């Protein structure tokens, strides 16, 4: 279980890519960049990487220490995703940050990239795959995340205001569906 395995790396990478859904988060990233100005791609990527690796190794211990099970943690994450989705679909602003310079860390690094869904997935992957392969998968995903964050201005120019509005509504509905699925799965319904 402590062996380097390309198949495990590929599978873990795909799972994390789907859960992080950085492509689907482009409208949120563009919206946050418009609200706060510049997003520090490097800072957001490094903080998310640190959170994910730390959680991979000590996440379950931390949760059990404070008496929170993984399902409750995932349900809390589903609420955060739900509210982000409502912002996108309805065009309202629920998230208000008193210190806008921190948008690179909250809400981008956490909970957008390294949120409850990602952390729950990391715990699931850890039960199945070698830790080294999961760590490599995290690094690969952070490279993609960094590239998307860095090119968000270009993506915004290419799509234009109309394209971004459409993308925001579509991915808002997808994000809402992910929130409902995460909630339902962890409620046992």
From TrEMBL:
Q: Which chain regions cross the lipid bilayer?
A: 12-32, 44-66, 72-92, 104-123, 129-149, 161-183
- Where does the UniProt annotation locate this protein? Cell membrane
Which keywords describe this protein according to UniProt?
Answer: Cell membrane, Membrane, Transmembrane, Transmembrane helix
* CC terms in the record's Gene Ontology section: plasma membrane
In terms of InterPro entries, this protein maps to:
Multi_antbiot-R_MarC
How does the record say this protein sits in the membrane? Multi-pass membrane protein
A single Pfam family it belongs to is MarC
What is the top-level taxon of the source organism?
Answer: Bacteria
State the similarity comment. Answer: Belongs to the UPF0056 (MarC) family.
Q: What is the name attached to this protein's record?
A: UPF0056 membrane protein
Protein source organism: Acidiluteibacter ferrifornacis
């Amino acid at each position: 279980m402590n062996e380097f395995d390309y198949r495990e790396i590929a599978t873990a990478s795909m799972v994390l890519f789907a859960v992080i859904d950085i492509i689907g988060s482009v409208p949120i990233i563009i919206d946050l960049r418009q609200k706060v100005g510049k997003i520090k791609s490097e800072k957001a990527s490094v903080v998310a990487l640190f959170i994910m690796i730390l959680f991979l190794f000590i996440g379950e211990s931390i949760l059990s220490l404070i008496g929170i099970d993984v399902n409750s943690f995932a349900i809390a994450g589903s609420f955060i995703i739900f509210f982000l989705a409502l912002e996108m679909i309805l065009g309202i602003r629920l998230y208000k940050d008193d210190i806008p310079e921190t948008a690179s860390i909250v809400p981008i690094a956490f909970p957008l990239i390294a949120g409850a869904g990602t952390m729950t997935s990391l715990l699931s992957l850890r039960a199945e795959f070698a830790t080294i392969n999961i760590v490599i998968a995290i690094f690969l995903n952070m490279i993609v995340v960094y590239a998307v964050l860095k090119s968000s201005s270009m993506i915004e120019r290419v799509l234009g205001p109309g394209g971004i509005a459409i993308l925001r509504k579509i991915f808002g509905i997808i994000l809402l569906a992910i929130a409902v699925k995460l909630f339902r799965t962890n409620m046992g319904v």
